[in-house]
């Protein structure tokens, strides 16, 4: 008997190979090739091999005769900022994919949402990872005691889709998609075929029953969604839970949203009662600040919300021939670029110093207007000079050392004024008496890093 052939499919990009290797030649990811049997791979090809087109002619309707769906029917999460991230709450019939690092608080957040929704509508929490006893302990800790909050433990994609299709619940949580499998497929849970087909089945069930469904997705070690990319395209909303799993602030932002904006952000803090929204993150982040050298206050934006955050820099003599650069909460590649600009456009000598950058509070800054604050923090640490306590900083730095305009300067300035700051070192395009305009990096360092 001839040995049945098997293909290997990359769980990251979906590319197919005839033999296993440690690295995918298509996307360069390691340890992502998963075996797929020949019978499984042939399922989708059998219909096409007959040379016929099956199906029936679609019934069409004029676009002007279509009655718009009621998008006002949304389920509130109980968190004002999270509702804004979702575009007003969970839309009935929508499918939301929630991703985040292990232990960051995804299950806690979803249990709190279930508890809020179950006060007015039936909600179901389905777990494929935890037992009923484990979920019960979390529910008691978070005060989830509603009669309309139901629980089920299952890893069967068929059973879960059928339960959703019955339409008994307005909100269903599926934790997580990587634990589910279909009876028709022989591959292991988490395989590309299982994730894709389970996702399709659940989405069809949610649309047919007008049920809001939230699917939890695992992430890889670099923070991207594990499994096939097609899952992100299938769902309506993709939200990412970011932050330090051991403490600090945690942010929820939408990567994709068919029913709202992707510029909103919700900021949470974990305590014994679960996740709590942070109403004034700027004041909390600056409460323990000490004005040492290397400390600069950045006026940044998290989505559309202005936040003041402390940037800390530390420069020490390098003990080896190759200086070390490290960053917490900031892109290391962008840091290396800014160090190169500082060395080329100013008189700072940094090739013999180890440089460390820290964004206080566990936030991750991705704002291009953080460039000027990073540069001033490094210069302050190297020169051992302090910027006055009443100054905030924002502005993008170009490769020529020029200071470029920042997005929404009025909101950044308004937040700084509310917290009692007196001046902002910012680009010349920010027209406000509060702003001290600067044109280039070298002039800025000469003027402000010479002050004690």
Tell me about this structure:
The structure is a single chain. This protein has helices at residues 38-42, 46-49, 80-86, 106-117, 132-142, 157-165, 192-209, 230-234, 281-286, 332-345, 371-383, 409-418, 441-448; strands spanning 6-10, 16-17, 33-37, 74-75, 90-91, 95-100, 123-127, 149-153, 171-175, 212-217, 237-243, 250-257, 265-271, 274-277, 295-302, 305-317, 325-328, 353-359, 391-393, 396-397, 403-404, 423-427, 435-438. It is α/β, with parallel strands linked by helices and 452 residues long. The protein has 3 domains: 6-41; 71-279, 3-Layer(aba) Sandwich (Rossmann fold), CATH 3.40.50; 283-448, Ribosomal Protein S5, domain 2 (2-Layer Sandwich). The strands form 6 sheets. Strands 8-7-9-10-6-11-12-13-14 form a 9-stranded mixed sheet. A 4-stranded mixed sheet has the order 15-16-18-17. Strands 2-1-3 form a 3-stranded antiparallel sheet. Strand 12 (250-257) and strand 13 (265-271) form a beta hairpin. The longest helix is centred in the middle third of the chain and has 18 residues, at 192-209. The N and C termini lie far apart (84 Å).
Secondary structure: elements and pairs:
Elements: E1 6-10, E2 16-17, E3 33-37, H1 38-42, H2 46-49, E4 74-75, H3 80-86, E5 90-91, E6 95-100, H4 106-117, E7 123-127, H5 132-142, E8 149-153, H6 157-165, E9 171-175, H7 192-209, E10 212-217, H8 230-234, E11 237-243, E12 250-257, E13 265-271, E14 274-277, H9 281-286, E15 295-302, E16 305-317, E17 325-328, H10 332-345, E18 353-359, H11 371-383, E19 391-393, E20 396-397, E21 403-404, H12 409-418, E22 423-427, E23 435-438, H13 441-448
Parallel strand pairs: 6-10, 6-11, 7-8, 7-9, 9-10, 17-18, 19-22, 22-23
Antiparallel strand pairs: 1-2, 1-3, 4-5, 11-12, 12-13, 13-14, 15-16, 16-18, 20-21
Helix pairs in contact: 6-7, 10-11
